[in-house]
Automatic annotation (TrEMBL):
<dbReference type="Pfam" id="PF04179">
    <property type="entry name" value="Init_tRNA_PT"/>
</dbReference>
<feature type="domain" description="Rit1 DUSP-like">
    <location>
        <begin position="299"/>
        <end position="355"/>
    </location>
</feature>
<dbReference type="InterPro" id="IPR007306">
    <property type="entry name" value="Rit1"/>
</dbReference>
<dbReference type="GO" id="GO:0019988">
    <property type="term" value="P:charged-tRNA amino acid modification"/>
</dbReference>
<dbReference type="Pfam" id="PF17184">
    <property type="entry name" value="Rit1_C"/>
</dbReference>
<protein>
    <submittedName>
        <fullName>Uncharacterized protein</fullName>
    </submittedName>
</protein>
<feature type="compositionally biased region" description="Polar residues">
    <location>
        <begin position="1"/>
        <end position="17"/>
    </location>
</feature>
<feature type="compositionally biased region" description="Basic and acidic residues">
    <location>
        <begin position="435"/>
        <end position="446"/>
    </location>
</feature>
<feature type="region of interest" description="Disordered">
    <location>
        <begin position="1"/>
        <end position="22"/>
    </location>
</feature>
<feature type="region of interest" description="Disordered">
    <location>
        <begin position="432"/>
        <end position="452"/>
    </location>
</feature>
<dbReference type="InterPro" id="IPR029021">
    <property type="entry name" value="Prot-tyrosine_phosphatase-like"/>
</dbReference>
<dbReference type="InterPro" id="IPR033421">
    <property type="entry name" value="Rit1_DUSP-like"/>
</dbReference>
<feature type="domain" description="Rit1 N-terminal">
    <location>
        <begin position="60"/>
        <end position="223"/>
    </location>
</feature>
<dbReference type="GO" id="GO:0016763">
    <property type="term" value="F:pentosyltransferase activity"/>
</dbReference>
<dbReference type="InterPro" id="IPR033449">
    <property type="entry name" value="Rit1_N"/>
</dbReference>
<dbReference type="GO" id="GO:0043399">
    <property type="term" value="F:tRNA adenosine(64)-2'-O-ribosylphosphate transferase activity"/>
</dbReference>
Length: 452
């Protein structure tokens, strides 16, 4: 949970000064995550400064608490001081990275300083200023809850720092339990309660005093009711929730349902399927559409296994998929990239495309050089003209010879050299790194939010 929060807000974080005195590997990971979250909270210093510069608030009236607060049971006084000395430089790095893609909007949203509170073993953990985090009216709260199973002993048991845990109950006086990956494994403890379902009914959870059994019963009841309602709204859900537009591009990411024929052709002109499965009627639907209306639609499958079962095929097929996107985006076609759920391989393909053809900027747009990407020059012996099925790889619009060439052992190098040539790059430097990819991803999200 820490990583998801911090990766969204602080993508320029690095490992320098990340708590070298801590030796327990689980404690080190938790403490490092606390540092990352602390940078996110300290970001309010920049927000406050920006609002003053805009003239929205009087500098003399601003009394935000922007000091660092960490759980005293995990972070020692010495460690706390080390983190404090690093944060201002981290915030400046964040600002210089341009990861804050719409600063005015951020300043409007963050009207109070951010403050994180930590809950482990069912108990609130005091921070470096006792009970200061409980003043809810002064802060926007980020609640960090440890979902690990409580059990004594074992390698995942993390001890408290001595003499720093006043008020801890006897059941938790020896520390807490940390199971790596527990926060990601919400299927085992979340009882199928989605964030959307919670925020549709927050008063049911937050207003009355509930026991643990009451909460479980309430969740089960809401989930069951939601599933019953969904039976009668599958078509509406599929139309509005199985696809997402990427920034200002004519490009969408979606689940397998978004690519179901023949309805998919009402929304798209070209579809890239990044799964091993395909609808049996997908190719026939293209031919039927062309016969009825003389309209040309295109389809390409990247036969890539889901998740960790794939080791090499996504990388092998990536040049083919990216060439397909470039070709049809240049023609102004509406393009869908889908995998099973729209959260895995489709995102990877689109992120690679964005890294190649979109400059760092807001809103997310194609580069000025994009139209100069000449797919015909990618393979000199290209068979066919790409306008008929003769020499075409199924219904993709790409020639069979080009696809076969890109799938060869040197296909990736061929594609990268061609990409650098059309990007006006004089050296074969990486087109993107981890930080720039995160920034581009964030800008795509911001563009979507602005449109909706």
């Amino acid at each position: 949970m820490f990583n998801e929060v911090s990766s969204e807000i602080t993508p320029t974080d690095n490992e320098n000064g990340s708590g070298k005195k801590l030796t327990n590997r689980h404690k080190r990971k938790i403490a490092y995550s606390i540092k990352r979250l602390a940078v996110a909270c300290k970001q309010t210093v920049w927000v406050m400064r920006y609002r003053v510069e805009l003239g929205e608030v009087d500098a003399l009236d601003v009394e935000w608490d922007v000091e660092l607060h960490t759980p005293a049971c995990i972070v020692s006084e010495e460690e706390h001081e080390q983190i404090s000395q690093l944060i201002d430089s981290r915030v400046e790095l964040l600002y210089q990275s341009k990861a804050i893609v719409e600063p005015r909007r951020l300043a409007q949203l963050v009207i109070k300083p951010l403050r994180a509170v930590w809950i482990a073993n069912g108990s609130f953990q005091n921070d470096t200023e006792i009970a200061s985090s409980t003043k809810k009216d002064q802060y926007l709260m980020i609640i960090c809850c440890n979902p690990s199973t409580y059990k004594e002993g074992g390698k995942n048991h993390v001890q408290w720092i001595d003499n720093k845990c006043k008020g801890i109950t006897s059941s938790t006086e020896h520390g807490y339990y940390y199971t790596p990956g527990a926060a990601d494994d919400d299927a085992t403890w979340g009882r199928r309660l989605s964030p959307e379902l919670f925020w549709t009914n927050p008063q049911l959870f937050l207003v009355p005093p509930l026991t643990d059994d009451d909460v479980d019963g309430l969740i089960d009841s809401l989930v069951q009711q939601h599933q019953s309602d969904s039976i009668f709204s599958d078509d509406l859900h599929s139309r509005h929730h199985n696809m997402n537009k990427i920034g200002h591009l004519n490009l969408w990411i979606g689940s397998r349902t978004a690519g179901r024929p023949p309805d998919c052709w009402d929304n798209f002109d070209a579809i890239l399927n990044a799964t091993e499965n395909e609808y049996p009627a997908i190719l026939d639907s293209i031919s039927e559409l062309h016969t009825k209306s003389q309209r040309s639609c295109f389809y390409l499958q990247l036969p890539v296994a889901e998740g960790k079962r794939d080791k090499t095929e996504l990388e092998r097929w990536m040049p083919v998929g990216l060439t397909y996107l470039i070709l049809h985006m240049q023609q102004g076609r509406r393009v869908l990239v889908h995998c099973a759920q729209g959260k895995d391989r489709s995102v990877g393909v689109v992120l690679a495309f964005v890294a190649i053809v979109c400059p760092l900027g807001y809103p997310l747009r194609l580069s000025e050089e994009f139209d100069s990407f000449d797919v015909g020059s990618l393979h000199a012996t290209n068979e066919g003209d790409g306008k008929s099925e003769i020499g075409m790889h199924f219904q993709s619009g790409l020639s069979t010879s080009l696809v076969n060439s890109l799938l060869k052992e040197d296909g990736r190098d061929l594609f990268l050299q061609w990409t650098h040539q059309h990007s006006n790059s004089t050296t074969l430097e990486p087109l993107a790194n981890k930080d720039s990819l995160r920034i581009r991803e964030r800008r795509a999200d911001e563009s979507n939010d602005a449109e909706t």
